[in-house]
Specification:
Helix 1 (11-21) packs across helix 6 (188-201) and helix 3 (81-90) packs parallel to helix 4 (127-144). The protein is globular. By secondary structure, it is α/β, with parallel strands linked by helices. It has eleven helices and 15 strands. The chain has a seven-stranded parallel beta sheet with strand order 3-2-1-4-5-7-12, with helices on both faces. The protein has a domain at 3-160 and 186-209: Rossmann fold (3-Layer(aba) Sandwich), CATH 3.40.50.720. 36% of the residues lie in helices and 18% in strands.
Length: 302
């Protein structure tokens, strides 16, 4: 029976595990015993270990034929020691046949709104993106040793449970049309399925733009979200004013503009997205939230 190791048991991993568990024996790395019950309920076998503690990863050597790496880098620094610890652990015995990593499209940096294919050089502008480039570099080394490494460069991940409705409710501004940037998105369910497909269909040392078909400007995305949930559209302001009203993290996302070419996930992974654009994903999110909280958006337009 196939054996799969899932590293990083966050939202996307938890969406992927049930599908994988029907087809393989799945192990999931968790940081504490308290997480074990929830992982077992999804159909996986928990393995307690911490990517920040290299010694705790000894059990990972040879445990699986395929590895799904969903764990983010640390919040600070210029590199990703967590991924390097994982690679060191996997090298101790026979290498996994395939490894899939969820990275970020932020590694491209600002592309001035141009269409971006996977062949575009990485020019990360933030420490956050540089940590992701370091992770990719470490994993490519593993790929040169015989594992089939596939990297999914994901943009903004959204789902019913991970929307920026609080930002709309606060009235946080977005950029005026003349200053606005293109942004890219992928629904968490679709990203989970892309992970599963890449484990079996991904090509060696191959990157994939894990994005849907949308190519919206950021302000238009928030307008669409506001309209979908019956909230006021955010005010539009010049970039100079936004700098005094928004956090440095938010401003960093407003400083990069690109449109991701997603043809490779369709041609090579043969992916058929459940939510091909943001409009479809937000409509599904609204329906989900109305079922979970019937009174929450009763005022929203039909």
């Amino acid at each position: 029976m196939n054996r799969i190791l899932v590293v990083g048991s966050g939202d996307v991993a938890r969406r992927a595990i049930p599908w994988l568990a029907k087809r393989a024996r799945v192990y999931a790395l968790v940081r504490s015993v308290a997480q074990c019950e929830a992982i077992r309920a999804l159909g996986a076998i928990p393995v307690v270990g911490d990517l920040d503690d290299r010694r705790s990863l000894a059990r990972l050597a040879g445990i699986a034929d395929r590895v799904l790496h969903c764990a983010p880098p640390p919040a600070t620094g210029q590199d990703d020691p967590r991924t390097r610890h994982l690679v060191a652990a996997l090298r101790r015995r026979s290498l996994a046949r395939a490894l899939v990593y969820i990275g970020t499209s932020g590694v491209y940096g600002d592309c001035a709104g141009e269409w971006v294919a996977e062949s575009r050089p990485c020019r990360p502008a933030s420490a956050r993106a540089r940590r992701r480039v370091d992770a990719e570099r470490a994993l490519r080394g593993l790929g040169r040793s015989g594992s089939r490494v596939s990297i999914l460069r994901a943009p903004g991940i959204y789902a019913a449970e991970r929307l920026s409705l609080e930002r709309l409710e606060r009235g946080d501004p977005v950029l005026a049309a003349g200053d606005d940037v293109f942004t890219n998105h992928i629904h968490a369910d679709d990203l989970a399925m892309l992970c599963c497909l890449a484990l079996y269909r991904g090509r060696p040392n191959r990157t994939y733009n894990a994005s849907d078909d949308s190519h919206l400007r950021m302000g238009d995305y928030f307008d669409l979200m506001a309209d979908t949930f019956g909230l006021p559209r955010p005010p539009r302001v010049a970039r100079s004013e936004a700098a005094s009203r928004l956090s440095p993290m938010t401003l960093s996302f407003m400083s990069e503009s690109r449109r991701l070419d997603n043809r490779r996930i369709k041609q090579e992974l043969r992916a058929r997205l459940r939510y091909p654009d943001v409009a479809a994903g937000l409509a599904a999110a609204r329906a989900h939230r109305s079922i979970e909280n019937p009174g929450e958006i009763a005022h929203a337009g039909a």
